[in-house]
Design a protein that fits this description.
The chain is α/β, with parallel strands linked by helices and about 280 residues long. It has helices spanning about 55-65, 80-100, 115-130, 165-175, 180-190, 220-235, 260-280, and strands at about 15, 25-30, 35-40, 65-70, 100, 105, 110-115, 140-145, 210-215, 240-245. An 8-stranded mixed β-sheet has the order 1-2-4-3-7-8-9-10, with helices on both faces.
Length: about 280
């Protein structure tokens, strides 16, 4: 996946953090302010991807928000446990509260964002932050997030045919007997598919920060994203959903070539401006 960033014209400076810091890279656009920070959690089905593979998104976010983006290089499966990646994200958030690209400093704007599998980690992380009583992020953004591990009725899922990226894989999974699929997931991830750690939709969704979810109307994850938003709103959390027709999974990666990707980032910018005005 790292080759996805090859040949991109990026405005940002990519910088390794100081020794002893979480693994990852700083993405700093011209004019980005060190007290403005974004924790970015990349997608890749928890088994692939890296800060480098998602530089199209992190560069765009840094330019859009004038914030320094820390793209975390969290531990992936199968070499590591699923939980190890979650622990890395939790530690990175604690660290970002007090550390910027130039060292120790508090943050006055801090956003948690991620896509796909990283979107799942994002939604799980904001619930953990609430439960830990930590300083809440200014906002959270989840792009085409996984909100629940889909194991039941795979062959009859809505958008199975229209999701060109995830559909073929899910069709193959649908042929596996349910008990094998269930226990294979448990053994592979070492966590129950019904656990809120792996399925944020199953968790308690009250007291969350302003959260924006983007999802394509053509992808398999649409229905569960809608269910997450409905449940969060019912719990009183300010969670918003914006959908796009006929887009591939995480189409944001195709900025600036895809006009709809640019529209999506403009929508993110408007959302964050609105949240900041209300916040301060």
């Amino acid at each position: 996946m790292d080759s996805m960033s090859d040949g991109l014209e990026l405005a940002s400076d990519n910088r390794s953090p100081a020794s002893g810091s979480p693994r990852g890279e700083w993405v700093i656009a011209p004019g980005a302010k060190p007290e403005r920070r974004i924790l970015y959690i990349h997608g890749g089905s928890w088994i692939a991807g890296s800060p480098k593979s998602h530089r199209a998104i992190t560069d765009r976010l840094s330019r859009l928000t004038q914030a320094c983006v820390f793209a975390i290089d969290y531990r992936l499966m199968p070499e590591n446990r699923y939980l190890d990646g979650i622990i890395d994200c939790q530690r990175a958030y604690r660290w970002l509260l007090d550390n910027g690209p130039d060292g120790k400093a508090s943050a006055d704007f801090l956003v948690v964002a991620g896509d796909s599998a990283g979107g799942s980690h994002t939604l799980g992380l904001i619930a953990w932050i609430r439960d830990q009583g930590l300083q809440a992020p200014t906002a959270a953004i989840a792009l085409s997030p996984s909100t629940e591990l889909m194991l039941t009725s795979l062959g009859s899922r809505a958008n199975l045919e229209s999701d060109v990226m995830l559909g073929p894989t899910v069709k193959k999974m649908a042929r596996i007997p349910m008990p094998l699929l269930w226990w294979g997931t448990v053994l592979g991830m070492r966590v129950l598919p019904t656990s809120p750690i792996a399925s944020p939709l199953r968790g308690r969704l009250h007291g969350l920060p302003p959260t924006l979810i983007h999802v394509s109307e053509s992808e398999l994850l649409l229905e569960n994203a809608q269910r997450y938003v409905e449940k969060a709103r019912a719990a009183g959390s300010p969670v918003e959903l914006k959908t796009w027709p006929d887009m591939v999974h995480v189409w944001h990666l195709f900025t600036p070539l895809l006009p709809e990707a640019e529209e999506a980032f403009e929508h993110i910018g408007a959302f964050l401006n609105r949240v900041e005005r209300a916040h301060g």
